[in-house]
């Protein structure tokens, strides 16, 4: 497990990234500190800036403004720092003309801390044929190969940019199970970007909602769920909420309103009927608010459409 004084996984201050002089920022003034030792879910619609944030973290691109450190250092600061981070990009890219065994040999040459025993054991466990070309593998097999290569570096941080989005449910389940096994075995932190909330709920204990180029909410999943509630009551009662209760999204249904609210660390008694929120409700509430400026009147179906339209 990471040391108590371990630097944060990410620390961003005013982080901004623009593509082109007049384009809308892909990331806009992001301030974020992600603790070590967590499995972090990064969620949001396509175009929200998720891949941009991860590419910045890997040193593949540079920010337009602001700063970002990864494990306490600038991204890809040197060869040693590069070895501390394992990255699996979208579509889990591998070399189609290379065999599975050739991928492992290449990984060993490129990474000084390469663990051949771990790589070979994992290849056997997922049933990959060392002599088979990667171009002949199924999507799930390519994902497992890419995951093995990233983990055999023995990194302190594993970064996944929607690696399982194109996999069928069975292959995705296997990929996520192996992801968690690597996290435990390596004692590593992990960041998983996905628009599939089922994946996030299965493996992540920390959540970041990124929408409209900004972080909308971030925190421990259990704490976030404990600090939010769904209030159900007459429309006219919303103006009598207790101080410190923040309305995230409101949906009106006839004479009643359903509001997702944030109640703070130690909420007092809430008016009306207070119900627990699901992770999906929480995420959609913040996404709706970001997309509309304020989430009043947009139902869950419309909020889902906001997400689906950007995928």
Outline:
With 311 residues, this protein is an alpha/beta fold.
What is the mean pLDDT? 86
Please indicate the count of domains: 2
Termini, distance in Å?
Answer: 35 Å
As laid out across the biggest beta sheet, the strand order is: 5-6-7-3-8-9
Q: Write down the CATH topology of the largest domain.
A: Rossmann fold
Oligomeric assembly: single chain
Number of strands: 14
Let me know the largest β-sheet. Answer: 6 strands, mixed
CATH class of the largest domain: Alpha Beta
Q: What is the CATH architecture term of the largest domain?
A: 3-Layer(aba) Sandwich
Strand content bin = 25-35%
Helix content: 25-40%
CATH homologous superfamily of the largest domain, by name?
A: P-loop containing nucleotide triphosphate hydrolases
Question: How do the helices and strands follow one another from N- to C-terminus?
Answer: EEEHEHEHHHEHEHEEHEEEEHEH
Our count of helices gives: 10
Structural shape: elongated
What is the rounded Rg? 21 Å
Structural class: alpha/beta
Low-confidence parts lasting 5 or more residues at pLDDT below 50?
295-311
Protein name: ABC transporter ATP-binding protein
InterPro entries: AAA+_ATPase, ABC_transporter-like_ATP-bd, ABC_Transporter_VariousFunc, P-loop_NTPase
Domain ABC transporter: 10-237
Keywords: ATP-binding, Nucleotide-binding, Transport
